[in-house]
Amino acid sequence: MRLLLIGDIVGKPGRQIVVRCVRGLVEREGIDLVVANAENCAGGSGLTPANYQELVAAGVDCITLGDHIFRRREIATVLDSQPNIVKPANFPPQAPGREWAVVRARNGVDVAVFSLLGRVFMRPVDCPWAAADRVLGEIPAEVKVILLDFHAEATSDKQLMGRYLDAKVSAVLGTHTHVPTADECILPGGTAFQCDVGMTGPTDSILGRRTDRVMESTLTFYPTPFEVAGGDVRLMGTTVDAGPTTGRATASLRLSIDEQAAAALSAAQLSKRPVG
Ligand SMILES: [Fe+2]
Ligand SMILES: [Fe+2]
Q1: High-pLDDT (> 70) share of the chain, %
Q2: CA 229/CA 246 separation, integer angstroms
């Protein structure tokens, strides 16, 4: 079976390309489960209940977040009530939301999804390694396919988590840096690994924000609003093929869908709609 993790969706341009092409992508690539990191959906920071609904309606099956999880407070009710969205599992236990989710894929297989925050150049959080052990102890033993979104800054931390969970989960895929890395691989124990799957949003930018704004603030120290940029929007993510009964990964592929490719995927879907 095939899983897809979509990298950090940034603002309206990011949401729009997801809405435009996820269904077409699912069909073209034979994807059974779509997971998306949605921490930057709402104007570049956070996720609103309306954004959540929009992504689910577009074909996203499960949502992970990150350090920007609570930038929009109103997401707490969604985190507490919906079965297909998770908070980082090394957040305080008192924080709204569940630490892991089991979501049924299109082929009928149950897949567990969880996320963790790294601790290098990130806010102080509980130990991600201990949290990983706790979550894996809680996920039902019959659920074999497990995806971790490791939301972290340091590539070394990400590599360590990949090795730590090798043979214990199907995939350790990174998010947060908004820059895809070219290191996708299958580790010796059968876990798919990649430091970062990239960003879904405007790539003519600094991590999704207007270059002129970030440049001005950086050069002058004078704060400016970091508005979401607009140019060269792409959907980036990585697919992982895993055995539904073994949970072991067999293949992994980086995706980058530009606006032209997204339009073609959308047109292919529209042409299949029944007329009348
Ligand atoms: Fe992000
Ligand atoms: Fe982040």
Answers
A1: 99
A2: 42
